[in-house]
Structure formats: C-alpha cells, structure tokens
C-alpha cells in the first residue's frame, strides 16, 4: 500500500521513500530521508540507539502516518519486532496463520513451522516456548504470508549469543529460498555484514552512509574485506576499533 | 593500556561453608493427603458445635446443633420445600445475572473500545457505582412494586458494576504491542476485537464475574427480605418468626452451598478458558 496515497495500487520497488520527515513535537527524528530498496535485496540498517531506526520501520509498516514526504511500500509485507508478539491465547500454529484470509489452515502453518525447524512445537502454547523458539515462530508467521518485503526490527537482540548465531543462519537460509526484499534493523555490525547486500548507516535523520557488500556468500567473518568494512562501519558509528584490538 | 585490577590474595583456607540440597519427596508419597488437611478444620468446628449444642451450653433458640439442622434439612427436602425454595431463588439469581452480564458487557465494550464511548458513558457509570446497591431497594420498590421485578433488578445492578469495572479495565490493559502486531498481520477491526482484545481482557473479565457472583448472592439475600412468598429468603423469614434456628441455619447453608457451586463454575471456566496462561500454583 502506498502510505502517502492510501488505496492507490501501482507497481514499483518494495521500498521507495523520498524526502520523508517525522517529528515528535519539536524533536525532528527523521529529516528529509530518501531510501530505495530493490526487489529481493537484503538491506541492513545500522545506527546509534535512538537515531530513529524503529521510527522509520514503523512508518514503512504503516503503523505511523504522522509524516510528510512520499512513501511507497510493497503491499505484501510482513513485520518482525524485537519481541515475538505472539498471541498467548492461540496455539503456535494458529499464531502462524493468524490474519490470513479464509479458515485457519493447519497444513500451511505446519509447513512454515517445519521451515524454521519447529515441527515439534505446532500445538503448544506460546508461553512455553524459549525466546529463540518464539522468535522463530514469529519468523514463520512472517514468511507464511510470502511477503515481497520483510521488515525486521532487531529481531535477535534479545537472544543469547549462541541462539543469535543460529537465528542469523536461519534468516540467511530463508532469504536465499524466498528471495523477498529485507530491511533488517540491527546494532550488530557483523550480523549486517554477513547477511546483507547493502549496509546503511542512519544519522541525524537521514541515511548517512550506503555501502554495497561485494563479498561472496557464504561469508567468513575473518575475510579481510569484511574486516575492513567492519572497521570502517564501526568508525562511522563512533567506535574506534583499534583501541580494543 | 589499562591497569590490571588489583587481585585479592588467594585465601589460605580453601574450604567454604556448604549445604546439602536434599531431593524433595515425591508429592504422591506425602504422609497426609492434601484433602484431609483441607477437611480437618471444618470437621473439627462442626464437632465442637455439636458438643456445645447437645451438652446444653448452646440453647436451641440461639443456635440449633448440627444434628437438628440435618434432620430439619431432610424433613424439608421430603416435603419438597427445599427444592422449591432453591428453584425460586436460583431463578431470580439467573435472571439478574443475565441482565447484569448483558448490561455490563455492552457498556464495557462501548467504553473500553471507543474513546468517544468512554467520554460519553464512563462518568455516569462511575457515579452510579459509588451508590451502595442495597441503598437502592426503596427506590426499586417504588418503581417496580414488591413482586419479582425489584429483586431481579437489584441482583442485575449488583452484577453490573463489578463486571463492568473489570471488563473495562481488562480491555484497557490489553498490550498495545499485540494489537499493533495484529494490524501488521492484516486483521480487520472486528477481528482485532474478536481475536486479540477480548481474549486478552478475558482473565480480568472472569475476575469480575467472580466478584459479580459474590454480590449477586448478597443482593439475593437482601432482595428476598422484600415481601417474598417463595425462595430461601421466604423460608428464612418465616422461620425467624417462630425462632426456628434450625431452619435458618439450613437456609444459610443453602446460600453458602449455592455460592460455592457458582464459584466452582467460574473456576471451571477459568481452567477451561485460560489454560494458555500457566499460573503460579502455590508451594
Ligand atoms: N512515540 C514517541 N513519542 C515521542 N518520542 C518518540 C516516540 N517514539 C520515538 N521517539 C523518539 O524518537 C527517537 C528515535 O527513536 P527510535 O526510532 O525508537 O530509535 P532507534 O533508532 O533506537 O530505534 C528517540 O529519541 C525517541 O525518544
Ligand atoms: Mg529501535
């Protein structure tokens, strides 16, 4: 749905944003931002805490229309939040197909859960899932909609380091298979570099840096090209790596 | 670069205080089953009451002993007085409950879901709530006479307010993050209400239902003092005139038992409807 012009159906890139601004009172959080994402492109968005990444993502998810500028977003889109946001009163499989048209389709839910490795959790209540499992259910819930655009707001930041690595691998694998455009907000530079085609850095309400990651997959964290990009990105985020090396 | 923090010298005596963790005995092998423990105190009380009664310390006109109460209950049951009284009272409660539940649900959904509804309706409801329901009896008699209507209306009012408060609170406490998620999943307004907001408000609504049942019984007892010709309250009023404390106690036990059954029903509902919510069970 084109957020600026509700109801108009056009075709175009999954994300096309021009001169977007959002303010909270006097506080201008997004200030004339431009953003373009190609079909099937995996984009990671980095930025200091509080710089407006979630605000941007909420606008793209059509959860916030208090904006100026032009925003056009893929109609078929799914959103993954930092918390899994499952409905505790619905069994896992019903959560997965919640909101899909027609009767709840158990087989479809089972297939999506199998994709994220949770075939044995189809019938349990969300409360009994571990953090990583719940986040995987949320991922299945997003992918079962076969979106053209997947918006993810720090989906792994609440997970422990090991679970995070597994989840990262899973997202990579699912993206290779589904080939939807992804906008992943993260504060983890390595995560961005391992997963994304393009890494953006947000600063002062705009995309301040836009770098293509031209490294073959699967990517190795020790790859010198990747290490160089990492150092550069960390410097842009205000962290001087050499001091810690 | 940075200085290593100064380390404490290692203790010379390496042993520390320890404690042994003893495995908990399996609950099935406990010496006294829980229901025995639960039943103990009421049984002791009844025995004490019987001893005081049959030894004459407690006179019949003050409080009849359990044996008399039991005999009277059997007698009343045989005469059919017991069942007709229960049916009459239950009928009133049921009608009042339906009236109150419908009113509270309609009001709370309007005020809970729509801010305009809250602005229009919540203040008058809150003001009415502060009036003790029992205080409305004279007005209800003036309006509805002394038949069934004022009794049912009283119970209805007593049910409405606690249920309304809890349902409204439950709706307003729904996690906004979940509602937002449901929007991104493509749920329409009606489905958001049906599949997210109302289920999320249900635990609080059931708490409200429990309070509502409590005040329904209270309203029943008061309501049945208004010129009744049937029901538990009628039996009790007649017995009062002849100092039949055994009949009075039978009626009190009836009120208590019915209240207990109602509570069990709500608990059953909670267990059935809220099984998704693993709750602390006590130690
Ligand atoms: N609903 C709101 N009301 C007022 N200020 C907000 C609101 N949401 C976000 N902000 C402010 O906007 C800025 C960006 O927030 P956010 O997008 O959450 O940052 P982050 O990049 O960490 O995700 C912060 O300074 C935050 O205080
Ligand atoms: Mg954020």
From TrEMBL, chain B:
Family annotation (Gene3D superfamilies): MetI-like
Pfam families: BPD_transp_1 (PF00528)
Location(s) in or outside the cell: Cell membrane
Record SUPFAM superfamilies: MetI-like (SSF161098)
Signal peptide interval: none
Transmembrane segments: 93-114, 126-146, 152-175, 242-266
Membrane topology label: Multi-pass membrane protein
Residue ranges occupied by any ABC transmembrane type-1 domain in the UniProt entry: 82-266
PROSITE patterns per the UniProt record, alphabetical: ABC_TM1
Protein family according to the UniProt entry: Belongs to the binding-protein-dependent transport system permease family.
Protein name: ABC transporter permease
Species this chain originates from: Actinomycetospora termitidis
